[in-house]
Backbone:
């Protein structure tokens, strides 16, 4: 790795001056591990509901939705304050704490003896998840030079996808493997989640050590009062590109949770209807989920390069359009195991990652460096609202209409955001960021 006057080079990605080789590689490790630990719990949840709590299948969609709503209420309450807090104390400590709390939630989840118990444990897990999402998003905005922003976001997506693919494959198959080794269903579920939680602890320790030396938040000499940072995060939406990025987060975060929750639930129940056990059904659902993530892995580098070469609002229009197509196709199926299901899952994976990358890249371009954490906190806040609507609405529609309904709902959301992005692209056609002064942001607070 070499340096020049414009920053530090990590492979084909240029980082801001001041970051070390260890910092850069640690961020990439966080990309591989952070978000995957936030996906696996929803994927394994159908096994816990069926085998460990005995919840009837006709109630599992609604219960999954309610648990996701509880999770997102905590995110809504904490995401903006934690974003502003990360601007004050730095990313490293908050990210490390997030890993540890997430690990506690993962390890305790299968020990619940009722849905109330699941809810209480989910609160702990949600606190850790919020800390990870906020600080991870802020770090992705902090690290790259502008010319490499899309490439870093794409690299992060590839590593996210790899981590999700590996962790859901292992987590989705562990109960079946342990059952085959002689463990009972409950013991197999508990041991599987304990192993996943232990991996989360180790990952958190690695991140805490590797990010030492240049913590963007704590190194920023221009610290502002907490409430002012929080107000500026909301006030940043006066920039229409940030506003449409907030809308993109609304759809894209909901997309991630809907896929993680309802691909697993639908796939597990469809397999059980064919005579399989819950462990075997979860393992089969993993195949569909793996196809979605494989598509994301394949196209992420191409999308990242494209996002750096075209207007980033144009990229958002394209990404949201592709996502809408993928969700509508997947939701209109009668079963996730039809003749064309794997091809449709591949299309869904392309659409999902296109929307996520485009929204994150545009947000990184437009966010004011002085309030990055606060802006990313509000961005995550909007994502939490989308997740709540997608989870609760999707869960109820799953039980009372059809299993593909959550995907149809998110397809409609992506289509609406595409229309909003198209409007912003036409009205503000310039390539460069729309600059707002601090006076503008202060004025937005006072307003």
Residues:
């Amino acid at each position: 790795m070499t340096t020049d006057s414009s920053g530090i080079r990590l492979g084909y990605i240029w980082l801001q001056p001041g970051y070390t080789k260890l910092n850069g590689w640690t961020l990439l490790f966080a990309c591989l591990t952070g978000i995957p630990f936030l996906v696996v719990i929803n994927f394994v949840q159908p096994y816990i509901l069926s085998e460990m709590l005995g919840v009837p299948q006709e109630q599992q969609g609604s219960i999954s939705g309610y648990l996701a709503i509880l999770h997102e209420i905590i995110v809504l309450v904490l995401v903006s304050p934690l974003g502003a807090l990360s601007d004050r104390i730095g990313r490293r400590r908050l990210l490390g704490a997030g890993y540890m709390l997430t690990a506690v939630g993962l390890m305790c989840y299968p020990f619940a003896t009722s849905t109330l118990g699941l809810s209480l444990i989910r609160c702990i897990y949600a606190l850790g998840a919020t800390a990870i999402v906020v600080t991870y998003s802020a770090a992705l905005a902090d690290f790259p030079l502008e010319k490499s922003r899309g490439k870093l976001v794409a690299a992060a997506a590839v590593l996210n996808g790899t981590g999700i693919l590996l962790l859901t494959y292992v987590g989705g198959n562990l109960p079946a493997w342990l059952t085959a080794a002689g463990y009972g269903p409950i013991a197999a579920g508990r041991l599987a989640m304990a192993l996943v939680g232990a991996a989360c602890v180790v990952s958190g320790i690695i991140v805490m050590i590797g990010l030492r030396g240049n913590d963007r938040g704590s190194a920023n000499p221009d610290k502002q009062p907490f409430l002012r940072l929080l107000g500026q995060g909301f006030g940043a939406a006066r920039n229409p590109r940030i506003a449409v990025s907030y809308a993109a987060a609304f759809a894209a975060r909901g997309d991630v949770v809907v896929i993680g929750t309802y691909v697993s639930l639908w796939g597990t129940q469809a397999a059980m209807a064919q005579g399989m056990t819950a462990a075997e059904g979860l393992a089969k659902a993993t195949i569909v989920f793996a196809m979605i993530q494989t598509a994301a892995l394949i196209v992420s580098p191409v999308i990242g390069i494209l996002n750096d070469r075209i207007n980033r609002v144009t990229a958002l229009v394209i990404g949201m359009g592709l996502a809408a197509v993928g969700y509508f196709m997947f939701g209109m199926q009668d079963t996730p195991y039809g003749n064309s299901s794997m091809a449709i899952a591949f299309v869904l994976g392309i659409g999902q990652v296109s929307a996520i990358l485009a929204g994150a890249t545009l947000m990184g371009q437009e966010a004011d460096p002085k309030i990055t954490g606060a802006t990313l906190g509000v961005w995550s806040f909007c994502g939490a609202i989308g997740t709540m609507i997608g989870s609760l609405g999707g869960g109820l529609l799953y039980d009372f209409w059809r299993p593909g309904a959550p995907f149809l709902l998110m397809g409609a959301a992506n289509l609406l955001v595409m229309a909003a992005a198209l409007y912003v692209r036409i009205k503000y056609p310039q390539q460069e960021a729309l600059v707002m002064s601090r006076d503008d942001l202060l004025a937005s607070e006072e307003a």
Remarks:
- The chain has one domain: 16-446.
- Confidence is low (pLDDT under 50) at residues 1-5, 218-222, 440-447.
